[in-house]
Amino acid sequence: MSEAHTSTQARGSRLVQRVLEATLSQLAQVGYERLAIPEIADLVGANKTSLYRRWPTKLELVADALKLAMQHTEAAPDTGSLRGDLLALTRVMGEFTQSSLGTAVLRLVLAQDTHPELRELAAAAQQAGRDHGPWLVIQRALARGELSASSDPSLLLFTLAGGILHRVFVERVRVDDAYLQRLVDLLLLGAKPR
Amino acid sequence: MSEAHTSTQARGSRLVQRVLEATLSQLAQVGYERLAIPEIADLVGANKTSLYRRWPTKLELVADALKLAMQHTEAAPDTGSLRGDLLALTRVMGEFTQSSLGTAVLRLVLAQDTHPELRELAAAAQQAGRDHGPWLVIQRALARGELSASSDPSLLLFTLAGGILHRVFVERVRVDDAYLQRLVDLLLLGAKPR
After folding, report:
1. Cβ B164–A165 below 8 Å, yes or no?
2. CB within 8 A of A43, min separation 6: which ones?
3. Is the Cβ of A187 closer than 8 Å to some Cβ of chain B?
4. Could you say which of A172, A191, A194 has the minimum Cβ distance to residue B187?
5. B186 vs A183: CB contact, 8 Å cut-off?
6. Could A165 and B167 be called an inter-chain contact, meaning their C-beta atoms sit closer than 8 Å?
7. Could you point out which of A44, A103, B82, B193 has its C-alpha 20 to 30 Å from the C-alpha of A1?
8. Which of B103, B112, B190 comes nearest A187 by C-beta?
9. Residues B144-170: tens digit of each pLDDT
10. Which candidate, B188, B32, B166, B177, places its Cα nearest to that of B97?
11. Which residues of chain A have pLDDT under 70?
Protein backbone atom coordinates (compact mmCIF):
# COMPACT_ATOMS: atom_id res chain seq x y z
CA MET A 1 0.00 0.00 0.00
CA SER A 2 1.47 3.38 -0.99
CA GLU A 3 2.10 6.06 1.59
CA ALA A 4 -0.29 8.38 -0.27
CA HIS A 5 -3.05 5.73 0.03
CA THR A 6 -2.51 5.30 3.78
CA SER A 7 -2.67 9.04 4.27
CA THR A 8 -5.94 9.21 2.28
CA GLN A 9 -7.35 6.48 4.54
CA ALA A 10 -6.28 8.33 7.67
CA ARG A 11 -7.93 11.51 6.39
CA GLY A 12 -11.04 9.45 5.60
CA SER A 13 -11.18 7.98 9.09
CA ARG A 14 -10.72 11.41 10.69
CA LEU A 15 -13.56 12.70 8.53
CA VAL A 16 -15.81 9.81 9.60
CA GLN A 17 -15.08 10.62 13.24
CA ARG A 18 -15.88 14.32 12.72
CA VAL A 19 -19.10 13.50 10.85
CA LEU A 20 -20.28 11.17 13.62
CA GLU A 21 -19.45 13.74 16.30
CA ALA A 22 -21.30 16.45 14.36
CA THR A 23 -24.26 14.05 14.02
CA LEU A 24 -24.39 13.50 17.80
CA SER A 25 -24.14 17.23 18.40
CA GLN A 26 -26.99 17.92 15.96
CA LEU A 27 -29.08 15.13 17.49
CA ALA A 28 -28.64 16.82 20.87
CA GLN A 29 -29.47 20.28 19.54
CA VAL A 30 -32.22 19.78 16.97
CA GLY A 31 -33.26 16.12 17.35
CA TYR A 32 -33.68 13.35 14.77
CA GLU A 33 -36.53 14.91 12.85
CA ARG A 34 -34.64 18.06 11.87
CA LEU A 35 -31.26 16.37 11.42
CA ALA A 36 -30.14 16.77 7.77
CA ILE A 37 -27.14 15.20 6.01
CA PRO A 38 -26.43 18.35 3.91
CA GLU A 39 -26.22 20.47 7.10
CA ILE A 40 -23.81 18.01 8.68
CA ALA A 41 -21.67 18.11 5.52
CA ASP A 42 -21.58 21.92 5.87
CA LEU A 43 -20.64 21.70 9.55
CA VAL A 44 -17.59 19.51 8.88
CA GLY A 45 -16.71 21.26 5.60
CA ALA A 46 -17.22 18.17 3.45
CA ASN A 47 -19.15 17.49 0.26
CA LYS A 48 -22.61 16.09 0.94
CA THR A 49 -22.16 13.59 -1.92
CA SER A 50 -19.33 11.88 -0.06
CA LEU A 51 -21.51 11.63 3.05
CA TYR A 52 -24.41 10.17 1.06
CA ARG A 53 -22.01 7.61 -0.48
CA ARG A 54 -21.17 6.24 2.98
CA TRP A 55 -24.57 6.79 4.62
CA PRO A 56 -27.36 6.65 2.01
CA THR A 57 -29.95 7.47 4.69
CA LYS A 58 -30.16 9.52 7.86
CA LEU A 59 -31.00 6.33 9.77
CA GLU A 60 -27.70 4.69 8.78
CA LEU A 61 -25.74 7.77 9.79
CA VAL A 62 -27.51 7.93 13.16
CA ALA A 63 -26.91 4.20 13.74
CA ASP A 64 -23.13 4.69 13.33
CA ALA A 65 -23.18 7.79 15.55
CA LEU A 66 -25.05 5.90 18.24
CA LYS A 67 -22.44 3.12 18.21
CA LEU A 68 -19.77 5.76 18.83
CA ALA A 69 -21.81 7.32 21.66
CA MET A 70 -22.36 4.01 23.43
CA GLN A 71 -18.62 3.23 23.59
CA HIS A 72 -18.53 5.55 26.58
CA THR A 73 -20.77 3.24 28.61
CA GLU A 74 -18.69 0.06 28.41
CA ALA A 75 -16.62 0.50 31.58
CA ALA A 76 -16.10 -2.52 33.85
CA PRO A 77 -14.60 -1.17 37.08
CA ASP A 78 -13.11 -3.66 39.57
CA THR A 79 -12.53 -1.89 42.89
CA GLY A 80 -13.00 -5.00 45.06
CA SER A 81 -16.42 -4.03 46.48
CA LEU A 82 -19.89 -3.69 44.98
CA ARG A 83 -20.28 -0.21 46.45
CA GLY A 84 -16.98 0.94 44.92
CA ASP A 85 -17.82 -0.61 41.55
CA LEU A 86 -21.30 0.94 41.47
CA LEU A 87 -19.86 4.35 42.37
CA ALA A 88 -17.39 4.05 39.49
CA LEU A 89 -20.18 2.94 37.13
CA THR A 90 -22.52 5.75 38.16
CA ARG A 91 -19.73 8.31 37.66
CA VAL A 92 -19.50 7.17 34.03
CA MET A 93 -23.31 7.18 33.70
CA GLY A 94 -23.48 10.68 35.21
CA GLU A 95 -20.87 12.10 32.84
CA PHE A 96 -22.56 10.44 29.88
CA THR A 97 -26.04 11.64 30.86
CA GLN A 98 -25.05 15.25 31.37
CA SER A 99 -22.91 15.46 28.21
CA SER A 100 -24.48 16.35 24.89
CA LEU A 101 -24.29 12.60 24.16
CA GLY A 102 -26.84 11.91 26.84
CA THR A 103 -29.19 14.54 25.48
CA ALA A 104 -28.71 13.14 21.95
CA VAL A 105 -29.58 9.61 23.06
CA LEU A 106 -32.60 10.72 25.09
CA ARG A 107 -33.95 12.78 22.19
CA LEU A 108 -33.47 9.77 19.91
CA VAL A 109 -35.31 7.56 22.36
CA LEU A 110 -38.23 10.03 22.46
CA ALA A 111 -38.33 10.27 18.65
CA GLN A 112 -39.24 6.56 18.42
CA ASP A 113 -42.90 7.47 18.95
CA THR A 114 -43.11 9.36 15.69
CA HIS A 115 -40.31 7.52 13.82
CA PRO A 116 -40.82 3.76 14.15
CA GLU A 117 -37.68 3.04 12.07
CA LEU A 118 -35.67 4.15 15.11
CA ARG A 119 -37.03 1.36 17.31
CA GLU A 120 -34.79 -1.40 15.99
CA LEU A 121 -31.78 0.85 16.35
CA ALA A 122 -32.58 1.75 19.97
CA ALA A 123 -33.28 -1.88 20.87
CA ALA A 124 -29.94 -2.96 19.35
CA ALA A 125 -28.07 -0.29 21.33
CA GLN A 126 -29.69 -1.52 24.55
CA GLN A 127 -28.96 -5.15 23.78
CA ALA A 128 -25.29 -4.35 23.12
CA GLY A 129 -25.10 -2.55 26.47
CA ARG A 130 -26.14 -5.72 28.29
CA ASP A 131 -23.00 -7.63 27.37
CA HIS A 132 -20.67 -5.07 28.83
CA GLY A 133 -19.05 -3.86 32.05
CA PRO A 134 -22.03 -3.42 34.36
CA TRP A 135 -22.96 -7.08 34.11
CA LEU A 136 -19.44 -8.15 35.12
CA VAL A 137 -19.76 -5.97 38.21
CA ILE A 138 -22.97 -7.78 39.16
CA GLN A 139 -21.48 -11.24 38.58
CA ARG A 140 -18.51 -10.48 40.82
CA ALA A 141 -20.81 -9.07 43.54
CA LEU A 142 -22.97 -12.21 43.46
CA ALA A 143 -19.85 -14.38 43.77
CA ARG A 144 -18.76 -12.34 46.82
CA GLY A 145 -22.22 -12.66 48.41
CA GLU A 146 -22.76 -8.90 48.29
CA LEU A 147 -26.12 -9.19 46.54
CA SER A 148 -29.03 -11.26 47.76
CA ALA A 149 -29.50 -14.23 45.41
CA SER A 150 -33.05 -13.10 44.70
CA SER A 151 -31.90 -9.64 43.62
CA ASP A 152 -32.65 -8.38 40.13
CA PRO A 153 -29.46 -7.00 38.53
CA SER A 154 -31.27 -5.27 35.63
CA LEU A 155 -33.60 -3.52 38.03
CA LEU A 156 -30.66 -2.36 40.16
CA LEU A 157 -28.67 -0.98 37.19
CA PHE A 158 -31.68 0.53 35.43
CA THR A 159 -32.88 2.24 38.60
CA LEU A 160 -29.42 3.75 39.15
CA ALA A 161 -29.56 5.03 35.56
CA GLY A 162 -33.12 6.27 36.13
CA GLY A 163 -32.15 8.19 39.27
CA ILE A 164 -29.40 9.95 37.31
CA LEU A 165 -31.81 10.61 34.41
CA HIS A 166 -34.24 12.29 36.81
CA ARG A 167 -31.48 14.30 38.50
CA VAL A 168 -30.05 15.63 35.24
CA PHE A 169 -33.14 16.18 33.10
CA VAL A 170 -35.99 16.78 35.56
CA GLU A 171 -34.34 18.28 38.68
CA ARG A 172 -31.67 19.96 36.50
CA VAL A 173 -28.99 19.50 39.12
CA ARG A 174 -25.46 18.48 38.23
CA VAL A 175 -24.56 14.99 39.39
CA ASP A 176 -21.71 15.12 41.91
CA ASP A 177 -20.00 12.49 44.02
CA ALA A 178 -22.01 13.27 47.16
CA TYR A 179 -25.25 12.62 45.23
CA LEU A 180 -23.91 9.41 43.66
CA GLN A 181 -22.91 8.05 47.08
CA ARG A 182 -26.38 8.74 48.46
CA LEU A 183 -28.00 7.13 45.41
CA VAL A 184 -25.82 4.00 45.54
CA ASP A 185 -26.34 3.65 49.32
CA LEU A 186 -30.11 3.99 48.96
CA LEU A 187 -30.19 1.18 46.39
CA LEU A 188 -27.81 -1.05 48.34
CA LEU A 189 -29.20 -0.53 51.86
CA GLY A 190 -32.80 0.60 51.28
CA ALA A 191 -34.74 3.39 52.99
CA LYS A 192 -36.15 1.22 55.82
CA PRO A 193 -34.13 1.07 59.04
CA ARG A 194 -31.85 -2.02 59.06
CA MET B 1 -76.24 36.88 36.42
CA SER B 2 -78.46 35.98 33.45
CA GLU B 3 -78.88 32.41 32.30
CA ALA B 4 -77.45 33.34 28.90
CA HIS B 5 -74.34 34.73 30.58
CA THR B 6 -73.81 31.58 32.66
CA SER B 7 -74.11 29.45 29.58
CA THR B 8 -71.56 31.60 27.74
CA GLN B 9 -69.20 31.17 30.69
CA ALA B 10 -69.70 27.41 30.69
CA ARG B 11 -68.97 27.25 26.97
CA GLY B 12 -65.89 29.42 27.59
CA SER B 13 -64.64 27.14 30.32
CA ARG B 14 -65.18 24.03 28.16
CA LEU B 15 -63.23 25.72 25.37
CA VAL B 16 -60.36 26.53 27.75
CA GLN B 17 -60.25 22.89 28.82
CA ARG B 18 -60.19 21.70 25.18
CA VAL B 19 -57.49 24.21 24.24
CA LEU B 20 -55.28 23.12 27.16
CA GLU B 21 -55.77 19.44 26.31
CA ALA B 22 -54.92 20.11 22.66
CA THR B 23 -51.83 22.02 23.81
CA LEU B 24 -50.64 19.04 25.90
CA SER B 25 -51.29 16.70 23.01
CA GLN B 26 -49.32 18.92 20.61
CA LEU B 27 -46.50 19.26 23.16
CA ALA B 28 -46.28 15.46 23.27
CA GLN B 29 -46.37 15.09 19.49
CA VAL B 30 -44.33 17.98 18.10
CA GLY B 31 -42.69 19.57 21.15
CA TYR B 32 -42.53 23.18 22.33
CA GLU B 33 -40.56 24.55 19.42
CA ARG B 34 -43.10 23.60 16.76
CA LEU B 35 -46.17 24.26 18.88
CA ALA B 36 -48.24 27.03 17.26
CA ILE B 37 -51.33 28.82 18.62
CA PRO B 38 -53.04 29.02 15.17
CA GLU B 39 -52.74 25.23 14.77
CA ILE B 40 -54.25 24.65 18.20
CA ALA B 41 -57.11 26.99 17.29
CA ASP B 42 -57.70 24.87 14.17
CA LEU B 43 -57.61 21.64 16.21
CA VAL B 44 -60.35 22.80 18.58
CA GLY B 45 -62.30 24.64 15.87
CA ALA B 46 -61.89 28.07 17.48
CA ASN B 47 -60.78 31.43 16.21
CA LYS B 48 -57.08 32.05 16.81
CA THR B 49 -57.86 35.64 17.84
CA SER B 50 -59.83 34.44 20.86
CA LEU B 51 -56.91 32.21 21.87
CA TYR B 52 -54.43 35.08 21.52
CA ARG B 53 -56.74 37.26 23.68
CA ARG B 54 -56.43 34.81 26.59
CA TRP B 55 -52.84 33.67 25.95
CA PRO B 56 -50.84 36.40 24.22
CA THR B 57 -47.79 34.11 24.01
CA LYS B 58 -47.09 30.43 23.55
CA LEU B 59 -45.30 30.46 26.92
CA GLU B 60 -48.47 31.59 28.76
CA LEU B 61 -50.54 28.92 27.03
CA VAL B 62 -48.00 26.22 27.91
CA ALA B 63 -47.85 27.41 31.54
CA ASP B 64 -51.63 26.94 31.91
CA ALA B 65 -51.50 23.55 30.16
CA LEU B 66 -48.72 22.43 32.47
CA LYS B 67 -50.80 23.37 35.54
CA LEU B 68 -53.59 21.16 34.21
CA ALA B 69 -51.15 18.29 33.57
CA MET B 70 -49.64 18.44 37.04
CA GLN B 71 -53.04 18.09 38.77
CA HIS B 72 -52.68 14.36 38.09
CA THR B 73 -49.67 14.08 40.37
CA GLU B 74 -51.20 15.43 43.58
CA ALA B 75 -52.42 12.15 45.08
CA ALA B 76 -51.86 11.55 48.82
CA PRO B 77 -52.67 7.86 49.42
CA ASP B 78 -53.07 6.67 53.03
CA THR B 79 -53.06 2.86 53.08
CA GLY B 80 -51.56 2.53 56.57
CA SER B 81 -48.10 1.39 55.47
CA LEU B 82 -45.22 3.05 53.64
CA ARG B 83 -45.01 0.18 51.14
CA GLY B 84 -48.74 0.45 50.35
CA ASP B 85 -48.56 4.23 50.02
CA LEU B 86 -45.51 4.10 47.75
CA LEU B 87 -47.18 1.48 45.56
CA ALA B 88 -50.22 3.72 45.22
CA LEU B 89 -48.00 6.73 44.43
CA THR B 90 -45.95 4.86 41.85
CA ARG B 91 -49.15 3.64 40.14
CA VAL B 92 -50.11 7.30 39.62
CA MET B 93 -46.56 8.16 38.50
CA GLY B 94 -46.58 5.21 36.07
CA GLU B 95 -49.88 6.18 34.49
CA PHE B 96 -48.78 9.79 34.20
CA THR B 97 -45.40 8.91 32.71
CA GLN B 98 -46.78 6.60 30.04
CA SER B 99 -49.65 8.88 29.07
CA SER B 100 -49.16 11.58 26.46
CA LEU B 101 -48.95 13.98 29.44
CA GLY B 102 -45.70 12.38 30.56
CA THR B 103 -44.23 12.68 27.07
CA ALA B 104 -45.38 16.31 26.89
CA VAL B 105 -43.72 17.18 30.20
CA LEU B 106 -40.48 15.36 29.35
CA ARG B 107 -40.27 17.10 25.96
CA LEU B 108 -40.85 20.42 27.70
CA VAL B 109 -38.12 19.66 30.19
CA LEU B 110 -35.69 18.85 27.35
CA ALA B 111 -36.62 22.04 25.48
CA GLN B 112 -35.23 24.15 28.36
CA ASP B 113 -31.75 23.84 26.86
CA THR B 114 -32.70 25.79 23.75
CA HIS B 115 -35.57 27.85 25.25
CA PRO B 116 -34.41 29.44 28.52
CA GLU B 117 -37.84 31.10 29.04
CA LEU B 118 -39.13 27.62 29.93
CA ARG B 119 -36.83 27.29 32.94
CA GLU B 120 -38.88 29.38 35.32
CA LEU B 121 -42.01 27.52 34.32
CA ALA B 122 -40.45 24.09 34.90
CA ALA B 123 -38.98 25.17 38.24
CA ALA B 124 -42.39 26.48 39.39
CA ALA B 125 -44.07 23.19 38.42
CA GLN B 126 -41.50 21.26 40.45
CA GLN B 127 -41.82 23.55 43.43
CA ALA B 128 -45.62 23.16 43.40
CA GLY B 129 -45.20 19.37 43.34
CA ARG B 130 -43.21 19.49 46.58
CA ASP B 131 -46.15 20.68 48.64
CA HIS B 132 -48.38 17.81 47.67
CA GLY B 133 -49.29 14.21 48.44
CA PRO B 134 -45.95 12.44 48.28
CA TRP B 135 -44.55 14.53 51.11
CA LEU B 136 -47.47 13.63 53.37
CA VAL B 137 -46.72 9.96 52.73
CA ILE B 138 -43.15 10.51 53.88
CA GLN B 139 -44.17 12.42 57.01
CA ARG B 140 -46.54 9.65 58.09
CA ALA B 141 -43.87 6.99 57.44
CA LEU B 142 -41.33 8.89 59.56
CA ALA B 143 -43.90 9.18 62.38
CA ARG B 144 -44.47 5.39 62.20
CA GLY B 145 -40.72 4.70 62.25
CA GLU B 146 -40.80 3.10 58.82
CA LEU B 147 -38.02 5.28 57.45
CA SER B 148 -34.60 5.66 59.01
CA ALA B 149 -34.27 9.17 60.45
CA SER B 150 -31.25 9.81 58.22
CA SER B 151 -33.18 8.91 55.08
CA ASP B 152 -33.56 11.45 52.30
CA PRO B 153 -37.23 11.70 51.25
CA SER B 154 -36.54 13.65 48.05
CA LEU B 155 -33.97 11.10 46.96
CA LEU B 156 -36.40 8.25 47.61
CA LEU B 157 -39.28 9.86 45.68
CA PHE B 158 -37.12 11.13 42.82
CA THR B 159 -35.41 7.76 42.40
CA LEU B 160 -38.80 6.03 42.22
CA ALA B 161 -39.81 8.54 39.54
CA GLY B 162 -36.46 8.01 37.79
CA GLY B 163 -36.87 4.22 37.72
CA ILE B 164 -40.26 4.66 36.07
CA LEU B 165 -38.83 7.22 33.63
CA HIS B 166 -36.15 4.74 32.58
CA ARG B 167 -38.66 1.88 32.28
CA VAL B 168 -41.07 3.84 30.10
CA PHE B 169 -38.77 5.91 27.90
CA VAL B 170 -35.51 3.94 27.70
CA GLU B 171 -36.52 0.29 28.16
CA ARG B 172 -39.87 0.96 26.46
CA VAL B 173 -41.69 -1.53 28.69
CA ARG B 174 -45.12 -0.80 30.09
CA VAL B 175 -45.13 -0.28 33.85
CA ASP B 176 -47.22 -2.99 35.55
CA ASP B 177 -47.88 -3.81 39.17
CA ALA B 178 -45.28 -6.59 39.32
CA TYR B 179 -42.61 -4.11 38.22
CA LEU B 180 -43.77 -1.43 40.67
CA GLN B 181 -43.63 -3.89 43.58
CA ARG B 182 -40.07 -4.88 42.68
CA LEU B 183 -39.08 -1.22 42.35
CA VAL B 184 -40.62 -0.18 45.68
CA ASP B 185 -39.10 -3.20 47.47
CA LEU B 186 -35.65 -2.47 46.04
CA LEU B 187 -35.81 1.10 47.35
CA LEU B 188 -37.22 0.10 50.74
CA LEU B 189 -35.06 -2.96 51.43
CA GLY B 190 -31.95 -2.44 49.29
CA ALA B 191 -30.11 -4.96 47.10
CA LYS B 192 -27.69 -6.13 49.84
CA PRO B 193 -28.75 -9.17 51.86
CA ARG B 194 -30.44 -8.06 55.12
Report:
1. no
2. A22, A26
3. yes
4. A191
5. no
6. no
7. A44
8. B190
9. 999 987 889 999 999 999 999 999 998
10. B166
11. 1-8, 72-73, 126-131
Partners of residue B31 in chain A, C-beta under 8 Å: 31
Taking only the tens place, the pLDDT of each residue in A5-33 is 656 677 778 899 999 999 999 998 888 88
Burial A36-58 (b: 16+ CB within 10 A, else e): ebeebbeebeeeeeebeeebeeb
Burial category of B143 from C-beta neighbours within 10 Å (exposed 0-12, middle 13-18, buried 19 and up): exposed
* Chain A residues closer than 8 Å to B161 by CB: 166, 170
From first CA to last CA, the distance across chain B in angstroms is 67
Residues 6+ away with beta carbon under 8 Å from A89: A75, A77, A133, A134, A137, A157, A160
> What ipTM was assigned to the predicted interfaces of this complex?
0.85
Residues of B in Cβ contact (< 8 Å) with A152: 182, 186
